[in-house]
Amino acid sequence: MYSYAAFIRNAANPQFNDVARQLMDRFCHAHPEWLSIDIGNGLSVFHQPPLGRSAEAITLPGDRGAILGTLFPKDLRASPRDWRPIIHEALAEDIVQSRGRRPLDHFWGGYVAFLSDHGSSVHLILRDSSGKVPCYWLMHHGITIVTSRIGILAALNLPSFSLNARYIAGFIVEAEMAQRECAVTGITELLAGECREIKNSRSTQFALWDPRVIARQRAPVDFQEASRQVRQVTQACVDFWASKYDRILYRLSGGLDSSAVLGCLKNSPRMPRITCLHVDAGGTDQSELEFARLAADAAGMELVVQPGYSHHAKYDERIFLLPKSPKPSVANLGVTLDYESRNLLPAKVHAEAIWDGEGGDHLFFSARSSYEAVDYAFERGLGSGFAPHVRGAIRQSGSSLWGVLGKTVRFGLCRGPWRPHLGQHQRPAFLNPAIVPTDIDSYIWQPWSADASDLPPGKRLQICLLAWLIHRHRPVPELQYASEHHPLFSQPLMELCLETPIYTLVQGGMNRALERAAFRDCVPERIIRRENKGSVTTTVMGKMRECLPFLRDLVLGGVLAQERIIVRSALEPFLVANRPLNHEVLWPFMSCIAAEVWARKWAADGWRI
Predict the structure, then answer these.
(1) What angle do CA 91, 94, 98 make, to 5 degrees?
(2) Nearest to residue 260, comparing CAs of 224, 297, 234, 288?
């Protein structure tokens, strides 16, 4: 992960300069090995690039700013082997004057950018659309402090913060929500594709990369042409990312998405040294190991198989090894269970990153629904091509003809009011209703769900799911030998999938139908045809039952109960009376555990960084 801290102030104010100087002196004393970039005009950046060639600092000519991370050209025909990011004087000026718009038009990759307009004393912070590099900001005595890791600011001796109960309540309802607010008041996340403009110590935050705008740029709906474009764009994205690494560990689940990315890797002109790893959960509904071996054999790769969790893996005091962060994370709870044994293989092969195929369900659309017919009717009415999409919707949703037609008329032809169906994400009974945001749906589905009524419902749902996807991961470099990398989170591919209608993505009632057609040349046919997926739910529930005494004491006697965010009496039947945890309770309870661990880390230090 790229670690950085930036200090931004109004250079014309001597008081702000003095405060910034004190803060930067403390930071440099705590991190003497870090590199510095003094842009001038009140912008100073300190950074520590990751090892290897995966990321770098690119300074803009004329002291106009710096870009930290990885840049690739929007023209995918360029050679990954030969291309280098060169930003000349005119382009640098254009990047600043466009308020950060030009980087998204000219480049893609994984980066944050700090821009400075010397003529107007305006500063801009930009985070690219992949969300690969974290970005949080806070204010202190007129100074804007921006960082990827909040813990590196400990030496600044900043005032204490406080718990944001509203965020914690929303997190328990849906742990993957995309929200600018953080779980501590006073810290804000710059979401993927957003820009923060700072002028005279006042700032505004807005979206530069907006999936709603992209989705309105309709791509060709011809299935074969769309399939060809998906294959071509995915291969190009994988090729560019592969050019940045010499050794990677590839997490191969045996599913369609991970097999497709591995197939692209095999065809890359500059293929890094790859070690395939399959984590066998054992207790899943269906073993994925057979399919993982099939994909590895087809790619000519050796496959290493590890058990999902060793017998030493438990929820215990090790979960407090997680570093302090602006937001809790359910996914990171699993990191603490077995992090030492999980790091052995990456260390052995000297992996620079851990790749996977995550994201296909969101990009290529995998949902049991009627959206194939609904979205077609929404955009094209009841033309001659409507009937096949009705049959497809019946197949995919499992509904009757009349059920599909009813939804098609209501949400497609009549364009009736529609909101994403939360289903299992309804407010759990153990959450204090007084704490929950008034409009919990809007709070969870921010920021791209508003003002999208001109888009078909299925496309709106895809946009919401994409927001969750790219904000799901919170890197933990303290506990991970190598950073995770998700090559499907690439701007050109995300934009292509957003432009492609849902009824093309799932044509014929087959989830991810377009993806299946696109990668038939590099994925074994048995994997192309399979429609079921493994699940880790059984394994997670078993591990929780095994560690129930620890989890009971953690949650019932913790910060969330003291702050009355959760209702103890509603949780006690599951934790004391051993009532089974069903699926509706399991994941909110996991969110509750993650939030409790997060809160105790902050509370132990008096809510100071």
Answers:
(1) 145
(2) 234
Q: List the structure tokens of 489.
A: 């989170």
CB 132 within 8 A of CB 489: yes
Q: What is the pLDDT of residues 51-81, one digit of tens each?
A: 888 999 999 998 899 999 999 999 999 999 8
Provide the pLDDT for residue 285.
Answer: 44
Angle at 320 between CA 588 and CA 305, to 5 degrees: 75
**Which is nearest to 539 in space by CA: 330, 281, 336?**
281
Of the candidates 333, 332, 261, the residue with the CA atom closest to the CA atom of residue 295: 261
Domain boundaries, the chain: 3-159, 214-363+469-529, 538-604
Q: Are 6 and 46 in contact (CB under 8 A)?
A: yes
CA distance 415 to 489: 31
- DSSP reduced 3-state for 57: strand
Are 285 and 534 spatial neighbours (Cβ–Cβ below 8 Å)?
Answer: yes
Q: Under CATH, what is the fold of the domain 214-363+469-529?
A: Rossmann fold (3.40.50)
Question: For residues 177 and 170, is the Cβ–Cβ distance under 8 A?
Answer: yes
Supply φ then ψ for residue 570, to 5 degrees: -80, -20
CB 179 within 8 A of CB 167: yes
CATH superfamily of 3-159: Aminohydrolase, N-terminal nucleophile (Ntn) domain (3.60.20.10)
Largest CA-CA distance found in the chain, in angstroms, rounded: 71
Answer for the pair 565, 165: CB distance below 8 angstroms, yes or no.
yes
Partner residues linked to 279 by β-bridges: 306
Q: What is the separation of C-alpha 137 from the centre of its chain, rounded to a whole number of angstroms? A: 18
**Partners of 110 in the beta sheet?**
70
Cα separation, 283 vs 546, whole angstroms: 14
Q: Are 186 and 138 in contact (CB under 8 A)?
A: yes
Task: Please give the helix or strand (H or E) that residue 556 lies within, else none.
Answer: helix 548-556
DSSP string, 25-64: HHHHHH-TT-EEEEEETTEEEEEEPPSSSS-EEEEEGGGT
d(CA 495, CA 231): 14
Q: 207: which strand partners?
A: 194
Whole-number Cα distances in Å, 136 to 123, 164, 339: 16, 16, 26
Task: State how far the Cα of 556 lies from the Cα of 561, in Å rounded to an integer.
Answer: 6
In order, the DSSP letters of 94-122 are HHHHTTTHHHHHHEEEEEEEEEEETTTTE
> How far apart, in whole angstroms, are the C-alpha atoms of residue 335 and residue 476?
8
How many residues are recorded in the chain? 609
Residues whose CB is less than 8 angstroms from the CB of residue 332 and which lie 6 or more positions away in sequence, other chains included:
322, 474, 476, 594
Token pair of 238 as six digits: 């994988």
Instruction: Write the DSSP symbol of residue 509.
Output: G
Q: Which pLDDT belongs to residue 440?
A: 82
Q: Residue 76 is encoded by which pair of tokens?
A: 């995918």
Residues 395-424: pLDDT tens digits? 999 999 999 999 999 999 999 998 776 544
Which residues does residue 195 pair with via DSSP β-bridges, in sequence order? Answer: 126, 206
pLDDT recorded at residue 534: 66
Beta strands in 118-209 (DSSP E): 122-127, 136-140, 143-147, 187-189, 194-199, 202-207
For residue 439, give the 3-state DSSP assignment: coil
Q: Specify the pLDDT at position 424.
A: 45
The rounded radius of gyration (Å) of the Cα atoms in the chain is: 24
Question: 385 to each of 378, 389, 390, how far by Cα in Å?
Answer: 13, 7, 9
